[in-house]
């Protein structure tokens, strides 16, 4: 971890200062049909309608894509954690068992467990000792909780709702049939046929992700997750076991605003940005009306992801 990144982790108040911002834009293209449930308050005749805008156009809630992205990242980091030389860890949002947490406390390694996975012990400590120092809790969070958020810390990455470009919407929503299966007999249950709505394959959604005050670990994690969607291994929505939700991220571009440090020093780390350059970049960002005008650098998404993943393995 870079010294500057550690400084911001140790001082959560200093972390509030804007020091960088990354904007990722692209198109999420469905390779199979998509189903994201829209609840019962709808004019649709289907028992399982999809989520719609007020104009009755399908969209993907940002929370749905963020959840799929986080799940993808956590699976990869759990695998990478088996390689002890790599500097990433995740709790997977899995609450630790009471016996496991008590043993860790007795052995003096409780701070090695992500606070998200030991919320029970933190609640007990608060009850016994009053308020705990938040900076210590933030420092112990695993890398995925630092990036995507936890009960103790806000997320550093924001995903906007994904909408279909107006000129690309075909106006078609498909209805598919399904039947409930009796597990014992492996046959369809009688009178339990149902239907559900899907967005057709090849539908394209506009994607926009903002990453702010990112550490090197944040960039590595997000690049790991997005690379899966770029290469067609990502999935989103419900009924995935039936073949729905396969997608591919296309035309990915990364807009970069670095106000304090950026890649390029002789030792492979970050070189400092001068006060004059920082002022110029901030002024450009505040006055610009488009991403091209606001951000001082634009990169091809695939190249950015590949470089970040290479840096991850070089950091081991």
What's the short version?
By secondary structure, this protein is an alpha+beta fold. The protein has helices at residues 3-10, 62-80, 98-106, 119-129, 134-140, 143-148, 216-230, 275-287, 291-294, 301-314, and strands at residues 20-30, 59-60, 157-159, 162-163, 174-182, 187-198, 204-212, 247-258, 261-263, 270-272, 297-300. It is globular, with a radius of gyration of 22 Å.
Features:
single chain, 316 residues, alpha+beta, five-stranded antiparallel beta sheet, globular, CRISPR type III-associated protein domain-containing protein, antiviral defense, RAMP_III_fam, CRISPR_Csm3_endoribonuclease
Secondary-structure topology with pairs:
Elements: H1 3-10, E1 20-30, E2 59-60, H2 62-80, H3 98-106, H4 119-129, H5 134-140, H6 143-148, E3 157-159, E4 162-163, E5 174-182, E6 187-198, E7 204-212, H7 216-230, E8 247-258, E9 261-263, E10 270-272, H8 275-287, H9 291-294, E11 297-300, H10 301-314
Antiparallel strand pairs: 1-7, 1-8, 2-4, 3-7, 5-6, 8-11, 9-10
Helix pairs in contact: 2-7, 7-10
Keywords: Antiviral defense
Domain CRISPR type III-associated protein: 30-248
Protein name: CRISPR type III-associated protein domain-containing protein
